[in-house]
Amino acid sequence: MNTLKLTWLYKPFPELTPFELYAILRLRSEVFVVEQNCVFLDADNKDQIAHHLMGYNGDDLVAYTRLLDKDTAYKLMSIGRVVTSPNYRGAGIGKELMEESIQLCYQLFGKDYIKIGAQLYLQKFYESLGFKQSSEMYLEDDIEHIEMIKQFDR
Question: Could you tell me where the DSSP H helices lie in the chain?
């Protein structure tokens, strides 16, 4: 269980400091490019219109998601670039990160469906948060993915 007490901070892109932006890009690169051995262009021109949720342990960025309104990545609002620091895994922060992200989506964009593009091996994790598979498996950057949707529980 999570023994860390993370500090959560979210900002739209124009409010990010250069240090926050650097920490975000570094963490995303560390996991999505280096750890997953996947060469892809992470900077996809959606960051500028996103809200960025950051979880800090002291001065260390250890958890992050990018929140997008409807009609940006999908017709539905979405949570993407879900990442936790390899140095902090196993402490339950992934679940806390997603719970914070879901609530922030509702706060920012309204209480409606949320869509994600999930790596297939994380399907059960996302199902535990209320997401259901909504597509067949597809390859994105040679990694198996599925789309998943979470209904708003009224």
Answer: 18-28, 93-109, 123-127
- Contacts of 127-134 with CB under 8 Å at 24 or more apart are 128/95, 129/95, 129/98, 129/99, 129/102
- CA angle 120-35-62, nearest 5°? 90
Domains of the chain: 7-111 (3.40.630.30)
Asked if 99 and 82 touch (Cβ cutoff 8 Å), the reply is no
The answer to whether the beta carbons of residues 38 and 143 sit under 8 Å apart is yes
Question: HSE on the CB side for 127, CA within 13 Å?
Answer: 9
How far apart (Å, rounded) are the C-alpha atoms in residues 92 and 3? 8
Confidence of residue 154 (pLDDT cuts 50, 70, 90): low
Residue 29, beta-bridge partner list: none
HSE of 100, CA atoms in CB hemisphere, 13 A: 22
Q: Helix H segments across 110-142?
A: 123-127
Q: Would the pLDDT of 12 be above 90?
A: yes
pLDDT digits (tens, 9 = 90+) for 70-117: 999 999 999 999 999 999 988 899 999 999 999 999 999 999 999 999
